[in-house]
Amino acid sequence: MKLRICAPDIFAGDAVGNHCIGIARTAMRFGMQAELYAQRFDATVLHIQPLSNLFDQIDADDVLLVSYSIFDPFLEQLLALPCRKLCYFHGVTDPDLLREFEPRTADLCEASLAQFPLLSRFQSFIANSHSTARSVAEWIAPTSITIVPPVFADMPVFLRTPTRRAEQRLQPDLMVVGRVVPHKCVEDAIKVLALLHERKLKFTLSIVGSMPNYDYSKFLVNQARSLSVLDYVNFLGMVDDEDLLDCYDRSSGLLVMSRHEGFCVPVLEAMHFGKPVFIRGGTAVQELCRPESVFDPHAPLAGWADAIASRLADPVHVDASAREEITRSQEILLRTDTSVWQQILLAGSERGDT
């Protein structure tokens, strides 16, 4: 019996790709052979096979895990395979949040919503959060969905022990981490930075993540320039693991302005480092955080600036919060322990909230 994991795209550095690779690594840890397949992938980085190979290689006693986050043109063919089939569901972004800058991706997300009834045909269904599970409640009973975070304790960021650097930055630095795409609303983070500057608080903003959309990236640069904060915004792009860890070490806190998140790994990373997180509510991210970190999704951005300035100005509160964030992150990581995946992949019949 082998575990065969497939997704439309598997690239190291991408959240879905990292997760597929992490599941394979976890399965092999308890002795289950695992193979990865994708329609699009970087063959020079990892041993990933073309999806076409899957249909030739899979046996009836194998376990197929389909990682689903966007329209999959092969979904019905995968569901017809004669083996036990599991779905890991990351959630699908609301097409309306993408339409202006990414119309093609918006169309794919809309097509994905039409595929949701097919998801009920999987023998086991796993979601990254309760919020994501609720999005398919019309077709799959929430009580039959297993909730497992899309992270692993052996990921580089979680292997790094949080440290306190002796050197201090001349300016406090806020971070935004993740792909720089429209539904992340990075423009709102830039507006918050400008509001802090209006209060004579010279914060900087580090934006870490790939910038695949030229029009949206240009829009962000122009907005920062129009708000007179372009010199305080650092577009760092993709960084390697070591540089990312250094960014967290130096950061004063993480901003998440996104209108859609199925989980949001950077929030857990920031919590692991004991960093304050400032989160727009209304998405799955708020399942990770303490209530004081979550802002009403309709709250004026001026309130964000006031709250950030107040929280970061109180070192006693920051230290106490850091301890709580670290403890909370450790608790969440336990929910994706190797034993959890072993039970899912080998037993298969057990369902429920982990």
Features:
354 residues; alpha/beta; Rossmann fold; seven-stranded parallel β-sheet; six-stranded parallel β-sheet; 13 strands; 18% strand; globular; disordered C terminus
Q: What would you say this structure looks like, in words?
A:
The structure is a single chain. Helices cover 38% and strands 18% of the residues. By secondary structure, the chain is α/β, with parallel strands linked by helices. It has two domains: 163 residues, Glycogen Phosphorylase B (Rossmann fold), CATH 3.40.50.2000; 177 residues, Rossmann fold (3-Layer(aba) Sandwich). Helix 10 links the parallel strand 11 and strand 12. The longest helix has 20 residues. The radius of gyration is 21 Å and the shape is globular. The relative contact order is 0.12. The C terminus is likely disordered.
| Count of domains | 2
Rg (C-alpha, Å): 21 Å
Measured distance between first and last alpha carbons: 24 Å
The biggest beta sheet reads: 7 strands, parallel
Number of helices: 13
CATH architecture of the largest domain: 3-Layer(aba) Sandwich
> Element order, helices and strands?
EHEEHEHEHEHEHEHEHEHEHEEHHH
